[in-house]
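Ticket #4471: structure output looks truncated?

Reporter: J.K.
Steps to reproduce: submitted the chain below (193 residues) through the standard prediction queue, then opened the result file.
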Amino acid sequence: YTFQRTTFWANKGITMNIVPSKKLIDKLLYMEVDDNDFHQATLNIMYQEWQTNYIGYTYKEILDWFEDTYDSFAKFAVLIGKYNQQVCNGGHIQYFDNGYANGDGGCFYKHSSSIPLHNELIKLFEKTELKEDELSLKVLKILKKFEIEEEDDEILNYDYLRALDSEYYKLCNEFMELINDYIKHKIIGESKC
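Returned output as attached by the reporter:
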């Protein structure tokens, strides 16, 4: 199954708008990442920097630094990874409440229902070859359906968000395997160019 997807990407001949930079490729290859951990290793690079050198940065600020230092591919990997972690831990409400859809502050801050980082995730997703994959398209559809309706700091579309959670939970494990395989394919494939 994984091989078929890899072959699909290689044979499709699609040039992707975002590709891993040489700096990201070199970093991941230097780390001698296990085949099943390319995605998590990318997340770990950013988190390590955030906790070591940029502790005062907001999530958005560290993501911007990560993109400037590595590339949009790396930023996409973090955005989709944090989306998955937050939604699988506490649903779309946690993803919003903890600031990952917005980027400013954490769980005790007010967040904008305009969800700018989430919208950036969608834009980056659409610039990858993943948009050609059936499973990925189902996840992209869920990402596009995510919205927050609130009044006086109270979320009004709670039931809608819970239904969206259930929809994502049916796909998340297989999708995260796909994401890791995709990142691995792009890192190893680009390193041979």
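Triage note (M.O.): checked the attachment and the full token line is present. The radius of gyration is 17 Å.
Status: closed, working as intended.
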